[in-house]
């Protein structure tokens, strides 16, 4: 597997987690 592909997948996973965390934070605040 390519390193760039691994980085892109990790970046997508982190981005989705951040987005869901922001949604949860906004609803609670």
Written overview of the protein:
It is a single chain. 90% of the residues lie in helices and 0% in strands. The chain is mostly helical. The longest helix is centred in the middle third of the chain and has 26 residues. The relative contact order is 0.12.
> What is the end-to-end distance?
42 Å
Per DSSP E runs of 2 or more residues, the count of β-strands stands at 0
Spans of at least 5 consecutive residues whose pLDDT stays below 50 are none
Which bin fits the share of residues in helices? Answer: over 70%
Strand percentage, roughly?
under 5%
Main pleated-sheet profile: none
Seen as an oligomer or otherwise, the chain set is single chain
Averaging pLDDT over every residue, what do you get? Answer: 90
Please tag this protein with its features:
29 residues
């Amino acid at each position: 597997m390519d390193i760039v592909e691994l980085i892109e997948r990790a970046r997508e996973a982190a981005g989705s987690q951040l987005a869901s965390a922001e949604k949860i934070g906004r609803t609670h605040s």
